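Ligand: zinc ion. Inputs:
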Amino acid sequence: MIPYSFSSKILLYSPNVLYLEVMSKEALDSRYTHKVLEKAEKLISEGRVYQVSKILFYIIGFHGKYFVNVEEGKFKCTCKGYKRRGLCSHIVAVLLLMSREDYKRKLDEAMKKRLELNLEYIRRGAIPR
Ligand SMILES: [Zn+2]
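Predicted complex:
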């Protein structure tokens, strides 16, 4: 169980269950947190999370590219969702990566696949996405 301090507190239980405890004034709708988790998993399984430095992550999101900054256990993202709610799928993806070995492995494999695909695009004379 790993608690984090940002506007929303995330606690991890079993390997397959992520429980979100929201500390912000406006309680998040459970449908929203469910969506955030689903998107975070997808970001990892598609190799869209790049660790730039110990405190900086670059996320190729589904609607844009963002940076997640992690300092002293506080997470910040440059996306609109974070500004509005203090939580987003990008932050949750980074949390999953930082706390779970299985997600790290999953990302490494997905990233390799993504890079190979990009090389294949270049071989065919196309520009990688
Ligand atoms: Zn974000």
